């Protein structure tokens, strides 16, 4: 195994930019000719802080979330190379290929190449590839014509830039030089440039004193403030967010105020096990922000997914109401599509402004913007605040790709509704956190047998039903993902409840199991049972 050198030379950077210049032509060809011959290299590497990633149960199986990209095999002249750290069970691949309407599974499989590193170590998949020169050589041979090929990734870092250069294909993602735009501090700058309100606070912090001084200033600016959020610049899924509670009563003397905040800071609350010393070490390494914890009688957490095409055009992809949970209420657990009618148009318009700013910086590919919407009374207008930008695929990406994969429909940019068949709007409930200890030990073939026995599947005759993902995580973690598609919100919820009932019955799980997520909604909000 070759030691990995993360540095990139000036010549490599020039080559990366030269390759990127070819991407608009490739994309234009794919868009204009549905049968254009090309190769997609898919590397679903979670190239993020591995210490933070370790907090996510079954994170190694999140590489399966991009299997919906096999939709590209609908083009009979398209080839897909899908790389993973660990093998994907053949039953899982067959499960997706048989859903490609109008394409024989055998024909699609001939154009699909699965490449496995057989390496379960806690390193990004992209790094594992770069450490294996023979794998790189084989990938280069299999890719063939690099003028008709591109690289798709979960998120873009210096690792993915080096891989694109090594393979000689353009990266369908942003230049890692722009990653700062997606940090918690960078988001604040983008929101200001886009003219979008966000929670008051301070960014570009680095030390414990920075955090303390920010908390002091926020309390001075807003004496009624009860809580604040401390965030690592490069955290994700809410795992790096710490909830701070101001001591009550709050001292009046400046010196006493500082000591009180310093003491209270030791009581930061995180969703996952964490220690104060470890968190502050990461804060010094990454930097971060402190902002007000926005509160109201009713608070929702919608998000909007956007895409900037290689030509620079920003386009709406989808909107969702996110379901957050965990001990801090900050961890992403699932979503409902589309976002509520009462604020969907407003957050989509705000997202477009963000997309225009990012496009001007040169950002390419998918990203999401998280919002908070708040109100005190049902008759009040919603107050909207932007929270963060995820310059990568996120938890809401796989379920929407699933909807496209299954129905072949399209999003109406004016309404934000997804229309399939004869203009039928589609709705879904999705989570990658359907889990129970009783599900552990289920192999993919066991799971497929349960699906067939109970008829839990997607029906193309109605374009409704259930699609599963992260099936490989069942055996070890008792966890998988589901996307439940219906012709109404109620139907999507019902499919989910039926799925849970079947799995619980087949495995003897107690219902409801502790920590399980159920789609119980009140005015669009969710709660944990």
Automatic annotation (TrEMBL):
Pfam families: ATP-grasp_IQCH, PGM1_C. It comes from the Bacteria. Residues 188-420 form the ATP-grasp domain. Keywords: ATP-binding, Nucleotide-binding. InterPro entries: ATP-grasp, ATP-grasp_IQCH, IQCH, PGM1_C. The keyword 4Fe-4S does not apply. One of its GO terms (molecular function) is metal ion binding. This is ATP-grasp domain-containing protein.
């Amino acid at each position: 195994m070759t030691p990995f050198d993360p540095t990139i030379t000036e010549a490599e950077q020039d080559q990366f930019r030269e390759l990127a210049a070819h991407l608009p032509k490739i994309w234009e060809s794919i868009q204009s000719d549905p049968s254009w011959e090309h190769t997609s290299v898919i590397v679903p590497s979670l190239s993020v802080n591995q210490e933070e990633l370790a907090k996510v149960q079954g994170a190694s199986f999140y590489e399966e979330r991009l299997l919906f990209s096999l939709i590209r095999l609908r083009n009979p002249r398209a080839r897909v190379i899908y790389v993973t750290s660990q093998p994907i069970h053949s039953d899982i691949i067959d499960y997706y290929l048989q859903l490609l309407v109008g394409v024989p599974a055998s024909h699609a499989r001939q154009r699909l190449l699965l490449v496995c590193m057989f390496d379960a170590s806690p390193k990004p998949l992209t790094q594992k590839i770069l450490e294996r020169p023979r794998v790189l050589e084989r990938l280069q041979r299999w890719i063939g014509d690099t003028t008709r090929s591109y690289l798709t990734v979960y998120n873009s870092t210096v690792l993915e830039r080096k891989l694109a250069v090594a393979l000689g294909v353009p990266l369908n993602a942003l230049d890692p030089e722009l990653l700062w735009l997606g940090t918690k501090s960078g988001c604040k700058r983008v929101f200001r440039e886009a003219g979008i309100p966000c929670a008051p606070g301070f960014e570009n912090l680095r030390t414990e004193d920075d955090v303390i001084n920010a908390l002091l200033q926020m309390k001075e600016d807003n004496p009624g403030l009860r809580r604040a959020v401390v965030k690592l610049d490069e955290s994700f899924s809410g795992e790096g967010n710490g909830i701070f509670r101001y001591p009550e009563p709050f001292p009046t003397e400046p010196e006493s105020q500082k000591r009180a905040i310093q003491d209270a800071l030791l009581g930061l609350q995180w969703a996952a096990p964490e220690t104060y010393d470890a968190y502050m070490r990461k804060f010094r390494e990454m930097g971060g922000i402190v902002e007000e914890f926005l509160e109201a009688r009713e608070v929702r957490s919608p998000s909007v997914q956007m895409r900037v095409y290689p030509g620079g055009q920003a386009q709406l992809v989808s909107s969702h109401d996110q379901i957050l949970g965990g001990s801090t209420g900050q961890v992403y657990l699932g979503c409902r599509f589309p976002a509520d009618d009462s604020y969907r148009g407003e957050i989509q318009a705000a997202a477009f402004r963000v997309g225009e700013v990012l496009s001007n910086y040169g950002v390419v590919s998918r990203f999401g913007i998280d919002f908070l919407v708040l109100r005190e009374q049902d008759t009040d207008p919603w107050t909207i605040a932007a929270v963060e930008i995820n310059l990568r695929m996120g938890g809401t990406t796989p379920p929407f790709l699933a909807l496209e994969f299954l129905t072949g429909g399209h999003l109406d940019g004016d309404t934000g509704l997804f229309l399939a068949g004869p203009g039928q709007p589609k709705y879904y409930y999705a989570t990658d956190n359907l889990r129970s200890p009783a599900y552990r030990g289920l192999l993919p073939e066991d799971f497929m047998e349960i699906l067939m026995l109970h008829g839990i599947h997607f029906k193309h005759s109605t374009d409704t039903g259930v699609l599963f993902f992260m099936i490989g995580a069942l055996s070890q973690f008792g966890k998988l993902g589901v996307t439940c598609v219906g012709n109404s919100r109620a139907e999507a919820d019902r499919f989910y409840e039926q799925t849970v009932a079947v799995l619980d019955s087949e495995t003897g799980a107690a219902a409801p199991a502790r920590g399980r997520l159920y789609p119980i909604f009140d005015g669009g909000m969710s709660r944990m049972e």
